[in-house]
Amino acid sequence: MKEKVILVNEKDEQIGLMEKIEAHEKALLHRAFSVFVYNEKGEMMLQQRALGKYHSPGLWTNTCCSHQRENESNIEAGKRRLMEEMGFTTDLEETISFIYKAPFENGLSEHEFDYILVGNFEDDPKPNPDEVADWKWMHPEEVKKDLEENPDNYTAWFKIIFDRHYQTIS
Q: Known catalytic residues?
């Protein structure tokens, strides 16, 4: 079954469903979420996307992100995808939401009404190798500095969502 995304208007009201790849080809606004997981030292867990991903392979990004399914809450979706990608779950809290657009090198685009979800976790994840090549903990200040010095190491959307998230935690 092909994954569908929830098409929304600028008020986050559902206006339809569409296959994920088609929505990214057409750059249509759809609902999404981005998870940031922290440990007790205040470090954020980053993941390196698997090399087999159809866009942004091998680039670093936040703990996980994806799209809600129809009739799935933001928190339910975040927990589901955290388990699918990183092999663990934790309580998540919804923080901010905003619309952004980010093009990929392969001609696809993200155009998302994105919800930032935040959680805490102290153990090592058990990442799915089809999704994740590597992971690490980094302090947000280190991430900000590395984004400035090495922007090509990060996904297009992470550069946008990290900046928005960083404003709420700094």
A: 65, 112
